């Protein structure tokens, strides 16, 4: 462009852009299920003015959108504003949206969500104020559909603001927004949660809508009692109860002879509040109740729990997740060495690891977290670290490096050492990789432990660890068993190198788990880290001096740094599998309401027992044929990354981790809990039996 034309074009730009600037986003838009519009309280606005705007939703009959806290499921409506500073949404009182055993909070009909907008202080009189909002909501009936529209306002800026024709309507909507309660409320501890008390007399109906998910059990009843001229409401605690001193806030809806009123309230959580009745009991038919019963309490005593934990730990030695680590010390007893000392050191490593695991669970539980067996494998970073650990052990067994005095600081190397230190750290590693597996008898013992005081939980976990260490311990102390071992010889070095391959196979499995958690990018980072570790160990073996040491340190630092770059990715949708649907409480309730048989598989990518069961039983053609013949719907829930809703179902059925297999026969009052180790015959028998199912462990 020539120098002569440039000034002319620049002068014309405002005139060319003016028609485009006038095309503001429309104030109204419609989707298949919701008509939405922005309603302003002002006809004109002034620079720096703050005024009220409403989002009115005209929702299709029998459909609903969601409140600030959607309840057991759902998603709150959001507005992302451009061109104006917006305050928080002011929510009208929600209503209960019950679908079978699921209770949600939301709106039907024509709700209006209010918010305050601020006009830029530098807006010029005579200009146009044209903010836009990306509005997103989830609208549900028997299915849920995410929808979004772009809405906008187009208001003239003037020196003095003028109210608009909808100002009275906006004020009417504002009056429906709950205000802070004019009375004091008292919150006290109750066995199953908290007790909320207020002074209003003549209350015939009351309900508390907590504005924080998990603070209360949404699907549990809230019994109302009259007391001392006021009312008392018992509120069961939810899946994530608040810690003592944290504010429990929300909306209390009261019905009296004068009508319905709703107020916002807030009070600190008291010390000693109960843990609540647990999550919704999905075995209760929807027609019977909308407030499911509490999660079952374990009726085990301490002695039976310790015995089951010991037996479960013993069976863990037969599970595929422990095989790779046990192979590290498979040759230790062949050598003529300190068998008893190595057995005790291995046992000490296992018990120390289980004690640490119990301590972490105790601390998390004290903080209000709901966690279960294998919880650490929910973290992609933890999966990456364990894959590094097993890879280094494999390289050591392959002979790439020998562990010397300068390398004893690396924990994975210690696991491959000879002697007591090697046995101890082999026990540590065995305990770490055992947690993705769940053996028979473990479920009942762990469910009991997680509901008991800290000292009892620790005892059960130590019994589980003792069971895991027992075979190695028996071999170390029983000379007759040692005579069954082969004689030492040159074959041992070859066999040692062969044992590296179970390590590499375990690394492949862990990378597959990582792919479910962090996607292809996470796997690429992990593979890069493995290359860096191999390079560092090669430099250590081949090089000497400051340069080699620096290259090794940089490579190891970069490998460790990969953990900081890994980001969780969406877990693969299980509906991609043939004849499998993604588990949800809503879908289960819908199928049971239709009196259809349902098989529920709660699993995780890192759970070896789960994967084995799917390969040897659930994926077999005869099982698929039995499902098809009986009309069974197969629902699969993925716990690869911790899901509070699946955690709640596990807890409701007395389990602390996956796998969990449930079969709901048509018309049955309860689900049949199948064993944790499946065979095709067990599954076929369950879905082919027309009688009321029995519960088994």
Give a topology summary.
Blueprint: H1 5-21, E1 28-30, E2 34-40, E3 42-44, E4 50-59, E5 65-71, E6 78-82, E7 85-86, E8 95-99, E9 102-107, E10 112-118, E11 128-129, E12 132-140, E13 144-152, E14 155-156, E15 162-163, H2 167-175, E16 179-180, E17 186-190, E18 193-198, E19 205-210, E20 224-227, E21 230-236, E22 247-256, E23 259-268, H3 302-316, H4 323-326, H5 339-366, H6 380-398, H7 411-415, H8 419-434, H9 442-450, H10 454-477, H11 479-482, H12 491-498, H13 500-542, H14 545-565, E24 581-582, H15 585-593, E25 598-603, H16 608-618, H17 621-630, E26 633-638, H18 644-652, E27 660-664, E28 672-673, H19 680-688
Parallel strand pairs: 16-23, 24-26, 25-26
Antiparallel strand pairs: 1-2, 2-4, 3-15, 4-10, 5-9, 6-12, 7-10, 8-9, 11-14, 12-13, 17-18, 18-21, 19-22, 20-21, 22-23, 25-27, 27-28
Helix pairs in contact: 3-9, 3-10, 5-8, 5-10, 6-13, 9-10, 13-14, 17-19
Which characteristics define this entry?
697 residues, alpha+beta, Immunoglobulin-like, 4 domains, five-stranded antiparallel beta sheet, five-stranded mixed beta sheet, 19 helices, 22% strand, disordered C terminus
């Amino acid at each position: 462009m020539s120098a002569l034309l440039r000034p002319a074009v620049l002068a014309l730009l405002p005139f060319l852009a003016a028609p485009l600037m006038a095309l503001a986003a429309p104030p109204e838009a419609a989707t298949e299920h919701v008509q939405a519009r922005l309603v302003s309280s002002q006809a004109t606005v002034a620079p720096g003015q703050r005024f009220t705007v409403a989002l009115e939703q005209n929702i299709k009959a029998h459909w609903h959108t969601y409140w600030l806290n959607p309840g057991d499921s759902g998603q709150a409506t959001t507005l992302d504003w451009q061109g104006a500073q917006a305050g928080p949404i002011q929510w009208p009182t929600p209503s209960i949206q019950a679908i079978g055993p699921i209770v949600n909070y939301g709106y039907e009909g024509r709700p209006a969500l209010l918010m305050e907008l601020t006009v830029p202080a530098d807006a010029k009189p005579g200009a146009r104020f044209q903010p836009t909002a990306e509005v997103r909501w989830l609208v549900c009936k028997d299915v849920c559909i995410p929808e979004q529209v772009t809405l906008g306002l187009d208001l003239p800026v003037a020196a003095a603001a003028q109210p608009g024709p909808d100002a009275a309507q906006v004020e009417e909507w504002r009056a429906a927004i709950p205000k802070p309660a004019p009375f004091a409320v008292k919150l006290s501890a109750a066995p199953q949660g908290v007790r909320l008390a207020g002074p209003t007399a003549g209350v015939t109906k009351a309900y508390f809508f907590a504005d924080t998910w998990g603070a209360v059990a949404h699907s549990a009843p809230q019994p109302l009692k009259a007391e001392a001229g006021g009312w008392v409401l018992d509120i069961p605690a939810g899946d994530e109860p608040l810690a003592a001193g944290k504010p429990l806030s929300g909306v209390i809806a009261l019905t009296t002879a004068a009508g319905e009123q709703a107020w916002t309230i807030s009070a600190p959580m008291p010390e000693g509040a109960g843990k609540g009745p647990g999550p919704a009991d999905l075995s209760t038919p929807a027609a019977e109740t909308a407030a499911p019963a509490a999660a079952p309490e374990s009726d085990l005593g301490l002695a039976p729990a310790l015995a089951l934990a010991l037996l479960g730990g013993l069976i863990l030695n037969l599970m595929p997740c422990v095989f790779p680590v046990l192979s590290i010390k498979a040759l230790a007893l062949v050598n003529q060495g300190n068998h008893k000392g190595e057995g005790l050191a291995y046992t000490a490593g296992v018990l120390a690891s289980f004690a640490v695991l119990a301590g972490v669970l105790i601390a998390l539980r004290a903080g209000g977290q709901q966690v279960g067996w294998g919880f650490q494998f929910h973290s992609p970073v933890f999966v990456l670290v364990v894959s590094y650990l097993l890879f280094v052990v494999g390289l050591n067994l392959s002979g790439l490096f020998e562990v010397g005095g300068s390398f004893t600081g690396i924990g994975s190397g210690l696991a491959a050492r000879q002697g007591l230190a090697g046995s101890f750290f082999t026990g540590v590693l065995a305990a770490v990789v055992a947690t993705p597996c769940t053996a028979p008898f473990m479920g009942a013992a762990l469910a009991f432990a997680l509901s008991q005081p800290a000292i009892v939980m620790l005892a059960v976990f130590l019994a589980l660890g003792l069971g895991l260490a027992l075979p190695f311990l028996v071999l170390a102390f029983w000379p007759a068993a040692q005579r069954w071992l082969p004689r030492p010889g040159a074959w041992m070095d070859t066999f040692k190198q062969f044992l590296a391959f179970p390590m590499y196979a375990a690394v492949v499995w862990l990378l597959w788990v990582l792919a479910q958690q962090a996607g292809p990018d996470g796997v690429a980072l992990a593979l890069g880290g493995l290359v860096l570790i191999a390079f560092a160990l090669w430099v250590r073996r081949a090089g000497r001096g400051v340069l080699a040491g620096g290259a090794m340190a940089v490579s190891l630092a970069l490998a460790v740094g990969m953990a900081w770059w890994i980001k969780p990715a969406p877990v693969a949708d299980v509906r991609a599998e043939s004849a499998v649907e993604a588990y949800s409480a809503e879908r289960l309730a819908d199928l049971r309401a239709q009196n259809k048989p349902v098989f529920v598989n709660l699993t995780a990518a890192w759970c070896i027992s789960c994967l084995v069961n799917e390969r040897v039983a659930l994926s077999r053609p005869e099982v698929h044929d039995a499902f098809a013949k009986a009309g069974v719907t197969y629902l699969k829930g993925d716990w690869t990354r911790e899901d509070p809703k699946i955690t709640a179902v596990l807890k409701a059925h007395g389990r602390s981790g996956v796998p969990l297999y449930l079969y709901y026969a048509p018309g049955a009052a309860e689900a049949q809990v199948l064993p944790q180790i499946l065979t095709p015959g067990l599954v076929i028998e369950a879905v082919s039996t027309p009688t009321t199912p029995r519960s088994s462990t």
